[in-house]
Amino acid sequence: xxxxxxxxxxxxxxxxxxxxxxxxxxxxxxxxxxxxxxxxxxxxxxxxxxxxxxxxxxxxxxxxxxxxxxxxxxxxxxxxxxxxxxxxxxxxxxxxxxxxxxxxxxxxxxxxxxxxxxxxxxxxxxxxxxxxxxxxxxxxxxxxxxxxxxxxxxxxxxxxxxxxxxxxxxxxxxxxxxxxxxxxxxxxxxxxxxxxxxxxxxxxxxxxxxxxxxxxxxxxxxxxxxxxxxxxxxxxxxxxxxxxxxxxxxxxxxxxxxxxxxxxxxxxxxxxxxxxxxxxxxxxxxxxxxxxxxxxxxxxxxxxxxxxxxxxxxxxxxxxxxxxxxxxxxxxxxxxxxxxxxxxxxxxxxxxxxxxxxxxxxxxxxxxxxxxxxxxx
Amino acid sequence: xxxxxxxxxxxxxxxxxxxxxxxxxxxxxxxxxxxxxxxxxxxxxxxxxxxxxxxxxxxxxxxxxxxxxxxxxxxxxxxxxxxxxxxxxxxxxxxxxxxxxxxxxxxxxxxxxxxxxxxxxxxxxxxxxxxxxxxxxxxxxxxxxxxxxxxxxxxxxxxxxxxxxxxxxxxxxxxxxxxxxxxxxxxxxxxxxxxxxxxxxxxxxx
Lengths: 377, 206
Prior knowledge:
The complex is a heterodimer.
Chain A lengths: L4 H11 L6 H13 L1 H21 L9 H8 L13 H28 L14 H128 L3 E8 L8 E8 L3 E7 L4 H4 L1 E8 L7 E6 L1 E4 L4 E6 L1 H4 L4 E8 L9 E7 L6
Antiparallel strand pairs in A: 1-2, 1-9, 2-3, 3-7, 4-5, 4-8, 6-7, 8-9
Helix pairs in contact in A: 1-2, 1-3, 2-3, 5-6
Chain B lengths: L1 H10 L7 H9 L3 H23 L2 H17 L11 H22 L6 H7 L13 H13 L3 H12 L4 H8 L3 H30 L2
């Protein structure tokens, strides 16, 4: 029964794992001998395994035993190049060659220098010893030239080394210089750091002082503000005093004036103790003032107080003389200034309590009444 | 100057010649060139053989066989068909597999010779021409694409050189499951390696 290629490819893939059974191995071998595509596949598997084996050397270095290496290196010995010579042996050989070359060269120069003419020998004759020396000197000259070339190369290497050493020395000098500069910079840095710390301390002190000044300034501002408030209050008091002074002056003026008349206004409700409820100051030809006290808290009831005048004519008429206004809150004093010309028309006055504003006729309760004499201008 | 430095480095053991130059020198009879190649690749050959055979003694035998055959057949190496490392490691792999089969069936199978002589441009063989560092980087990249269990099994098998029984003992996996994991892992690595080769070829191409 023939199996598909995939079967053999799979066998080839796992052959390197060592898990093939003996029949599988034989079956694979027989197939590979006749199937090139499966051989190609087997080769690829084998190469992948080799790649992994090479890569694994990094992690698990599996070294060949040293004695095996020695045995391997003996392969082919005897008909191959000789073992590596030591450097001492090489130097000895070179020295011997140099001595031999120098000696040969001197001999050749010494003999050749005295030779006037070249020796002419019969063609069949044995070569002259000097010619033989010349012949043997030719390869030596080549060796000498090679040695000269090598010597020149050595000198070149030596010069390169000297240049490198000089560069290294220069670099070392620069490094030393840089280190010195670095140390100097470190020292400067330490010094600057100290100065900086000092400045920081001073700045801190100044800041503290500024804080104190700031507190003092704040206190001063508060004091000034308080003083200004006091000043404003004093100004108000002064204004009030001036106003009172003006009133007093006015009153004194009225008192001084002989034409001033004062009469009191009483509540005309029966059964009540009569006490002056209002006081009228009248200065002839100048002013007529009606004062009232204790008229109640009008702000709550939104009430107004009006002064009315009555005429004693046949058809009695009521004249609105005006509305009281608060003259002094602390004293609960009311004031109404009346044009004296109106008083010439009335014989009595009275006060009413009104709700809201009224103009021509009193609607509220009549509270105060007083007959007055007509003012004569 | 370069020749002088090269000769100096040879004297102190730092061989700067390429594998191909050394192989040519071996072909010309240079024992020193062979010694350098042995120093370079004996560990890789040994690891390859040991990984397949799971036996140090058998692996040593294979290493000797591989270098002896390589020395005798060095003229078969054609640098136009691949790197010396690929040529050598393929030979090591083949000989190790031969030995494994021989041990299993006491029969000698030489089918791998055909593979060695073919050196088909498979798209993976060429990757063996990279440096060890490049190979390590590439394999780590490819392994990183695999599931964790597959990565673990492949690392145990190819990095640590553990046998199937040793892996079973560590992972407690059954033999069929292990076989399945190994196949899936190496198949994924093969496909990814081919893809990587094509990307590299495209990148390095004109």
